[in-house]
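Q: Give me the 3D complex with pyridoxal-5'-phosphate.
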Amino acid sequence: MKSHFGQYGGMYVPEMLIPALQRLAGEYEKARKDKAFLKEFEDLLKNYVGRPSPLIFAKNLTKKLNGAKIYLKNEGANLSGAHKINHCIGQALIAKRLGKTRLIAETGAGQHGVATATVAAKFGFSCTIYMGEVDMDRQRPNVFLMEQLGAKVVPVLHGSRTLKDAVNAAIKDYLENSENTHYLLGSILGPHPFPTMNRDFQSIVGKEIRKQLKTTEKRLPDYVIACVGGGSNAIGAFYTFLKEKSVNLIGVEAGGKGLEVGKHASRFKGGTVGVIEGYKSYFLQDSDGQMQKTHSISAGLDYPGIGPELALLHDKGRIEFISATDSEAVSALKLLAKTEGIICALESAHAVAHAIKLAPKLSKEKIIVVNLSGRGDKDIFILAKAFKDKNFYEFIKREAEEGVIAYE
Ligand SMILES: *Cc1c(COP(=O)(O)O)cnc(C)c1O
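A: Here is the predicted complex, encoded as C-alpha cells.
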C-alpha cells in the first residue's frame, strides 16, 4: 500500500505518532485482503446502514432542463443521513481488530461527530469528540445528538475555538492515548493510511452506481458529479470510473460568496501546495503556511485542505474541478426539492447546481449522475435564515420560551 499519490499524501506527523499509524496501516493492509472482514463490512452496510442507496432517475428535473438525463445517487438515505457512515463503519471494524476500546474525533459542524458517535454506540466504544467552543455554540442540535448517542463532547477553549483547534486537541489526545484509542478521521485526508482506507470504504458508492445504471440504462454514465470538501464522497463516487475514459468526473468546490481570500473554499482556485495536518496537498494557506479562513454556506465544504489523491487527479487532468457559489447551491436545493421531492444537504446542492448548468448544454442521450452526499434535515436552521422564514423563527422563540419553563 503506497503512502503517497504522486508527490501528495505522506505521513507528516510528529515522530511519536509514526508507530501507531504504521500499526494502523499494517492492520488495514491485512484486513483489506481478509474475506471475513470484507464480508462483515458489507453485511453492516446492507443490514445496518441500509445499502444499496437508491439511484433515482430525476424525471421531472430532466424534463425541466430539457437536456441530458439526470440520475441522483441518494446517500442521504443512509443511516445518519450521509455517506460519512460508510468510512466510520470501516474504521470502527479496524479499531476493533486492533483491540482499541475508545474512538476520538474532531468535528466542525458536528456531522462527522454524529457519524463517529453512531458507530461508537453500535460497536461499544467509549467516544470523545473535540469541538471548538464557538462551533459548539453554533451547532447545538448536533452536540445534543452526539450526547444522546453516548459521546462526550469536549469544548476546545484555545485559539480561534473552531475546527483547527479541535484537530490539535484530538492529535494531542491521540499522542497520549494511542494504546487504547483510535483516531477516526472523517475524510480522505490526514496522514497515510487514512486517505487510502477511507477511499476504499467509500468506493462502494461508485460500484453501486455502475451496477444500478447498468440495470436501467445498460451503460456507463457520461458524467459523474460530486461536491468536494475533504473529498470522500467524491472519490467514493468516482473511484470505480477512474479507468473509464468515457466517464467525465467533475468535483464541485465551495465558491462561497466569491473568490476573494476568506470568502470561499476552492482549493484549486486559490490554493497552493503545502504540508498541513499530516499530509501534502493543495491548501488555502498564507505565505507562512498557515491555513486561511474559508467560507461556505455548507459546513462540510468549509475546509482549507483537500484529499491528496484528488490533488494528483487534478494535476493529471482526470478530474475537472469547478465551483458553485452559496446562492447557486441554495437555488439548486430549492429546485430539486420542488421537482423531485428530495431535500438534499447544502453540500450536495453544490453538485446539483453544476448539473443544472451542464444538463441543458448536452444532448438527451447523455447521462449525468449526481452524488447526493446527504440529506438536508441538518440544514433547516441555515435554510430558514437563507429564505428569511419569519414563521420558523417565531416557532423557535416559542419553543425556547416553553423550554425555559420546563427547565425551571
Ligand atoms: C461532510 C460532508 C461532505 C463533505 O465531505 P467529503 O469528505 O468531501 O465528502 C459533503 N456532504 C455531506 C452531506 C457531508 O456531511
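A quick observation: The pocket of pyridoxal-5'-phosphate is lined by residues 82, 84, 111, 187, 227-234, 300-301, 345, 347-348, 373-374 (CB under 6 Å).
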